[in-house]
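Q: Predict the bound structure with magnesium ion.
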Amino acid sequence: MMNDIEKILITEEELKEGVARLGKQIAEEYADKNPVFIGILKGVVVYFADMIRATPIPCEIDFMVVSAYGKGTSFGTLLMKKDVSVDIRGRHVVILEDILDTGRTLSHVIDHLKAKEPASLKICTLLNKPTRREVDIEADYIGFTIPNEFVVGYGLDYAERYRNLPFVGVLKPEIYS
Ligand code: IMP
Ligand code: MG
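A: Predicted complex:
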């Protein structure tokens, strides 16, 4: 698996520091709001598990399963395979997402969740790729801003592989071309 990686972009140590910083900020801002953290599966799984442990305040968790990408790296149709099960009406919601790229996935998710009338709705993304944006959407909390490169690891996949790498790395181009 390591042979497919061209370079490590964000090390385990840097991820830990970034998540600790985000968790501290959210813990302060949501201390008495009993927020609902909604993770967008599957890419969020590693970040989510670390993030909630870095945010030691009363909260609830829930997940949505949304997939926008098929096997490769180009945009397909967005499918919602699982909706939230917590009633978020009147609740403070923080969406946790692995990466904000074109913004299409999150803009759909936001429209969908807004219709349920939460008290507030914010986005906390681990990674941000601002150069790829196609939809006018920004995250409220950002772990790391990265260049326009396809990354894997720490939950992120290419064709469902590499999610279990402990760092965020760039794949060798020959793997996906
Ligand atoms: P968006 O809808 O283009 O913002 O894309 C968001 C989703 O695309 C993420 O939740 C990821 O699943 C996937 N994605 C976007 N960029 C990457 C990448 O560099 N590596 C792995 N998955 C990515
Ligand atoms: Mg993905």
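A: The pocket of inosinic acid (ligand 1) is lined by residues 43, 68-69, 97-106, 150-152, 156 (CB under 6 Å).
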